[in-house]
Design a protein that fits this description.
A hairpin with a 2-residue loop joins strand 10 and strand 11. The chain has 358 residues and is an alpha/beta fold. The protein binds 1,4-dihydronicotinamide adenine dinucleotide and 3,4-dihydro-2H-pyrrolium-5-carboxylate. This is Ketimine reductase mu-crystallin.
């Protein structure tokens, strides 16, 4: 028998790119919804007297484009941060579909992180009102999923808030005041900016000029503020290296963090609801990523007042019974919106993608 090919986490990280991962995940979601993919319920082995779990996630696919027989094995050890290890570690085994011979073992940790964020991107694309704006992104949590979601969402969407600077000099205006006014639900923010800071030799400004100022708004809240702050600094440093300076703001207060958000991503294991319906902006889209026997990151009112789609109905019915028992109604799988068999939610509604994972 040929030797088993091993692919390391570093090798995987080098070949992943967002466009390919997002389109592969969208295709997989459609294959799941059209029942072309064989995706059985995953088995969950909980290690007694701990919070630690081993998941086995087998699957089979045979389409014009690809054939694969595989199994992802995932460990979820929530206290691994203390050991400087990720909470979630994964390996993927690929078998020859004719002989059953194990051919490849590849690291699945990086794939799990990217795949999960790509699923949220796809859900946001297909559930959120096409005409709505993307100004503010709020992320709840500051671990692996929070970070990869921040990167994926910045790649795919432009969360940009526009404010306008009115250029002044000492002759035309005496005071450095700021003003803001509202028209409909659009807030128009006007800042008074001294001419000296806005004029370059190439780009001459005059008093009275109105200059748009674009700022990328990403809010991050974590139960320990410091961890959120560290993540914001890290993301800011990375965006500077890429030459696209973006603003990441850590928040002490969760309501402040999410109340203006157009998209919210929750990435914790909280069994006590964090997001409250009364804080939400109409039409917000939420990706609820945290998963576990008792995890419930959104309050009941949020679930009950929203259109909720999921990635895999059978899996959700099996694993998220605690949500169904509270009266949460899962309207369908994202794959059925992507392939056009289910209409997109209508505009103005709050939408939720409840992610389970594969
Ligand atoms: N839906 C899916 O496909 C996937 C879901 N997950 C889930 O996403 C969640 C996050 O995973 P990772 O980022 O890898 O974990 P992580 O350990 O790297 O980060 C967890 C974050 O949640 C916060 N947190 C934990 N318990 C909390 C609580 N009770 N209240 C408030 N904040 C709390 C921590 O402060 C930390 O910021 C987990 O629930 C995990 O099971 C992970 C991978 C795939
Ligand atoms: O998709 C996945 O690998 C997981 N979902 C929840 C924990 C791990």
């Amino acid at each position: 028998m040929a030797a088993i090919k091993q692919i390391t986490r570093e090798a995987i990280a080098k070949i992943l790119d967002w466009n390919s991962v997002i389109s592969a995940v969208e295709e997989a979601m459609v294959n799941v919804s059209e029942r072309r993919a064989v995706q059985n319920l995953r088995s969950i082995t909980a290690i007694p007297k701990t919070d630690n779990i081993l998941f086995a996630m087998p699957g089979y696919l045979n389409t014009d484009k690809s054939t694969a027989l595989g199994c992802k094995l995932v460990t979820l050890f929530p206290n691994n941060a203390q050991r400087n290890l990720p909470s979630i570690l994964a390996n993927i085994l690929l078998f020859n579909e004719n002989t059953g011979v194990l051919e490849v073992i590849m690291d699945g940790t990086e794939i799990t992180a990217w795949r999960t964020a790509a699923a949220s991107v796809a859900a946001t694309k297909y559930m959120r009102d096409v005409n709505s704006q993307y100004k503010t992104l709020a992320i709840v949590g500051a671990g692996t999923q929070a970070k990869i979601h921040a990167i994926a969402f910045q790649h795919q969407f432009k969360f940009v808030k526009v404010s306008y600077n009115i250029i002044w000099d000492f002759i035309t205006l005496a005071s450095n005041s700021c003003s803001s006014s509202s028209s409909g639900d659009e807030e128009l923010v006007i800042n008074m900016v001294p001419i000296s800071t806005n004029s370059t030799r190439k780009n001459k400004r005059h008093a009275g000029d109105i200059v748009p100022n674009y700022s990328e708004e990403v809010h991050i809240w974590n139960r320990t503020y410091k961890k959120g702050e560290i993540l914001c600094e890290e993301l800011h440093r990375q965006s500077k290296i890429q030459g696209t300076t973006k603003e990441y703001t850590p928040f002490q207060n969760l309501e402040e963090c999410i109340k203006d958000a157009d998209v919210i991503i929750t990435t914790t294991s909280s069994p006590i609801p964090l997001v409250q319906y009364k804080w939400l902006k109409p039409g917000v889209h939420i990706n609820a990523v945290g998963v576990g026997e008792a995890v419930m990151e959104l309050d009941e009112e949020t679930y009950k007042s929203s259109v909720v789609f999921i990635d895999h109905l059978a899996g959700v019915e099996h694993e998220l019974r605690h949500l169904a028992e509270k009266g949460v109604v899962f309207q369908g799988e994202i794959g059925s919106i992507i392939n056009g068999t289910t209409p997109r939610p209508s505009s103005g509604q709050i939408t939720i993608f409840q992610s389970l994972g594969t």
